[in-house]
Design goal:
Helix content: 25-40%
Strand content: over 45%
Distance between the termini: 24 Å
Radius of gyration: 14 Å
Order of helices and strands: HHEEHEEEE
Largest sheet: 6 strands, mixed
Number of helices: 3
Shape: globular
Oligomer: single chain
Strand order of the largest sheet: 2-1-6-5-4-3
Length: 119
């Protein structure tokens, strides 16, 4: 349920178009591997990436859990994701794929992203 809760909070930040709040879900040394094949490091680069998505009209994000697991320190989640983008013709277009997340458990019991990749 902690991964589902983390996904819900991440989706809420995304759907507000709040790149800073999305980036706050990541550790300072986090790696983010988007489908662009870039390797982004840390919240500042991650925030910039999501700000670009929002500026291009990507919205309506949803993560649906496929599997979760892990141990006391590291937890993983795999999910289907969907969102709405603006197509070349200006019409809304559904996009989606799969994502993998590795979380590190924090001292307060919450989760922060250490690694995130999607296609």
């Amino acid at each position: 349920s902690q991964v589902a809760d983390a996904y819900e909070a991440w989706d809420a930040a995304f759907n507000r178009g709040d790149a800073k709040a999305v980036a706050a879900a990541y550790l300072q040394d986090a790696k983010f591997l988007p489908a662009t094949h870039a390797v982004l490091s840390g919240p500042a680069e991650i925030e910039e990436f999501f700000a670009g998505l929002f500026a291009n009209g990507v919205a309506g994000h949803a993560l649906r859990v496929i599997e979760v697991g892990g141990d006391g320190k590291l937890v993983y989640g795999a999910a289907h994701w969907t969102a709405t983008a603006t197509g070349a013709d200006g019409a809304p277009q559904e996009i989606g794929g799969t994502a993998t997340h590795i979380f590190e458990r924090q001292g307060d019991g919450g989760l922060k992203l250490k690694l995130h990749t999607f296609n």
